[in-house]
Amino acid sequence: MRLRLVVLWTLYALLTSTANAQTIVGPQGERFTERVVARQLSDPWEVTYGPDNFLWMTEAKGYRVSRLDPATGTRQVLLDVSKERQFPRYDKIPDSLDGGKPWPQGGLMGLALHPQLLQGQPYVYLTYIYRFAGAQQPGNGSLPNHGGNFFTARLVRYTYDAAAHTLSRPVVLCDTIPASNDHNSGRLLIAPVAGRNYLFYSVGDLGAGQFDNGGRTNHAQNPNSYEGKILRFNLEPDADPNTQEAWLPNDNPFNTTRQSAVWSIGHRNVQGLAYAEIGGNGKMYASEHGAFSDDEINLIERGKNYGHPLVLGFADGNYNGLAAAASEHASLPGPWHTTYPTITSEQANAKALGATYRDPLATLYPLSHDFLTTVLTRTRRHDPDEPTWKSEAPSSLAVYTATAIPGWHNSLLIPTLKQGKLVRLKLRDDGTAVASDTIMYFKAPVRFRDLAVSPDGTKLYLATDSATVTSGPSEDAPKGTACKGCLLEYTYVGGGSAATPTVANRKAPSPEKAMQEATAMVQKLKPKDRRVKRAGLPATQRPVFDLLLKPTLTAEERARVQQNALALLAGLRQQ
């Protein structure tokens, strides 16, 4: 009887999910069905397709690891590490009771499955934040003068019992990884180097230089600190007598008299790590949050320097004279009131970093120097109409190596937080450059946190945040956020083109066309949004903006708008 009920329930779940599926058409004619696999998850952070054909998932705030059947949505909790957290759920406690203490960005974050998980190596690697230095301090627990919130993360290996479906026997690889309430990054990846697998972990710059961490020193360029780095660990301890060093590869690039996990430096907030063999060679890619612009896609190499906070995006000069943050706190250093250094010249900084410096493969999106100056200036004076800027806040990364969807083979897939979409970038055949323009899929009022792809490439699983905001460029949640804490399945059912959309050489629209587009953009804005957009424009463009709100224009006004339409449209597109 019990077996019969289970069978009936499974059939019901499958029929219901099929009936509720809806079809979405992609920009190249690809057709996908969409369905909700799971709901009400506690901020899913990592979702990984396992060798058992189940989805393995971490919940950032719930501190749980689960194994989920993608066909039925049935979920088993394998591990609850909330007891390891040495501070309470500050996000659920009123500020009047806890002094306004912060929740760390993330919590339980990365998960990586050993490549031989079901073949004699039953290991699962996790990372979570377990300590807050300010937990017993009065007030919000942060250091004075915006000196920062100091958390600590732990990297642990667990053993999977496939019969009992539990994770147990934790072994700590490292329990001194610095963390924060901002820019923790938190991705884990197992990838080979010279034929041997290693564990890679991304650590952000911990927001050092912005918001509550505005007075905290930024260590992204300091090779002796784990902040703003990608780290590399052994999957198994080596023969080093020092237990702490046994998990550190003896050939890591920044080993000196003391071994170090640092693999690459100069990172801001790497929330996406992925590896694939392309063109016969293995490549590791990373997606990284920019500051006010220039979200980065990087090709990660041993011992290389990715520039932050001295070069943001390409070394193209759009941040010259600026910094990676600004604040109204005059007690903080520099013209922009931040511990982020003022960038005199990106080009000079890149040259000074030398042969180890690497530009990104691509950025989303480089904004103009004039516009960035306007944003930082308004931030510094604490403008009541807070500035907005165009960015994506990439939250994860996968390399699509299957051939199921025409044209997708060897593409980077990038979920985003701010705009709620999946970005696809086609790679060149050797994997060393991007060959296409950005292609956008599944845009919705959600914050996509992570992505998993089925082995045959026909199903994409996207996890969404439960919370609507975090901080910085990703703070603006899509309006009308729907399906919080969900796992969504997109199944490819046909269509599409094998042609690669090449990087476009966009021709500037005619003055008439630019005026029409700018008018449509301005007139559909709500009053508050109009104030914000107007304030973000150079002073010379604001009177033209005002003209677009008039129901009719005189011949003289129309000529004036047409004369300035191209510049105005460019300014609006950056916001």
TrEMBL record:
Pfam families the record matches:
GSDH
Query: InterPro entries, from UniProt?
Result: 6-blade_b-propeller_TolB-like, Glc/Sorbosone_DH, Quinoprot_gluc/sorb_DH_b-prop
* Glucose/Sorbosone dehydrogenase domain location: 42-331, 389-467
In the UniProt record, the signal sequence range is 1-21
UniProt keyword Signal, yes or no: yes
Please indicate if the UniProt record lists Signal as a keyword: yes
Q: Which UniProt keywords apply?
A: Signal
* Protein name per its UniProtKB record: PQQ-dependent sugar dehydrogenase
Organism from which the protein derives: Hymenobacter tibetensis
